[in-house]
Amino acid sequence: MIDRSEILGWLVETDPARLEELWRRADAVRRASVGDAVHLRGLVEISNHCVRRCGYCGIGVEHAGLARYRMEADEILACARQAASFGYGTVVLQSGEDYGIGREWLAGLVRAIKAETGLAVTLSLGERPEADLAAWRRAGADRYLLRFETSDPALYRRIHPDLPGRVSDRLALLRRLRELGYEIGSGVMIGIPGQTWDSLADDILTFAGLDLDMIGVGPFIPHPATALGRGELPPAPRERQVPNSELQTYKVVALARLACPHANIPSTTALATLNLASGRELGLARGANVVMPNLTPTKYRALYEIYPGKACLREAASECEACLRERIVRMGRELGTGPGARRR
Ligand code: SF4
By percentage, how much of the chain surpasses pLDDT 90? Predict the structure, then answer.
């Protein structure tokens, strides 16, 4: 385990030689805890409708000019079949908070995917009511991803306006998801204006406190069509503000591994966006053990632009598969097989 003062020390460290020690420790803990396998989770962005107005997100309800789509069940099933044919163990169904995705419709889709492919099913569909979450779990969904983005309640409220009549409490919802029997995944953005070193250290301790099964972190990259993209949120004083840099993101990946040795930690598309040549590899070398190749049909991909410049918008699923497979093998790591559940 790692304590708060040590986390804080690494967060502000800038000496590359000292940071080599952090990368080495995170890689050693990764190898000892989850092994050399890199699990591939096929991502399908099933709808870009969303009722929320998160202050940084390009598919929030206020982005009026955006064409909206919601994939048909047959299209999603075809993506799941493709995931199985590529040898992936998991399909991840992700969308905005879209109430056009009905409880029974999605439960039927989960049952069909499980029956036909046997894949693990991960859902990432926002803060849905408990009855929906319970029905999808009964239908066979295995995991649920819901990033809490920051553990600082005041900062959270500044960038995530509540829906009328509902108060968001993502930490409570994650605990409830666990009680429902899901593996739970969460994570944060790094470098939100107003995010301080102390609050980021608290975020990492919160990963451990929740005993997360999956941890996804990425740099804050606001979409230009949003309030935060227009710079409407003031930063913290310079010496306290966390930068939204690639280096800072690797540090949080590494510290998440030290805080939660057995969690599944992806090297995210956001890292590839900051460094297309080697961002994914550096994430995998500094604590991560998962990648999420995109299976979303290319005609929809550009419409799921949560942040600008997202990597791999135009590549077909087969190109993503071949590219990632080659990168993993070149690193001397193994391709994971099976569902890649969290080890206990
Ligand atoms: S971050 Fe998620 S919930 Fe918020 S607006 Fe974007 S898609 Fe909707």
Answer: 77
**60 in contact with ligand 1, CB cutoff 6 A:** yes
pLDDT at 98: 98
Residue 236 lies in a domain: yes
**Which of 45, 50, 66, 99 to mutate to test ligand 1, by most ligand atoms within 8 A of the CB atom?**
50
| 292 within 8 A of 91, measured Cβ to Cβ | no
Domain harbouring 70, CATH code = 3.20.20.70
pLDDT band at 22 (very low <50, low <70, confident <90, very high): very high
Structural domain including 9 reads 4-335
Domain count, the chain: 1
For position 341, what pLDDT does the model report? Answer: 83
The pLDDT value given to residue 309: 73
On the CB side of 234, CA atoms within 13 Å amount to 3
- Provide the token pair at 220: 């804050």
Mean pLDDT rounded to a whole number for the chain = 94
Q: Considering the domain boundaries, does residue 340 fall inside one?
A: no
- pTM of the model as a whole: 0.95
Q: Is the CB of 50 under 6 A from ligand 1?
A: yes
54 lines ligand 1 (CB under 6 A): yes
> Is residue 341 domain-resident?
no
- 166 part of a folded domain: yes
Q: How far is CA 32 from CA 27, 35, 255, 338, 340, in A?
A: 9, 6, 15, 19, 16
Give the distance (Å) from ligand 1 centre to CA of residue 160: 9
Q: What is the pLDDT of residue 75?
A: 98
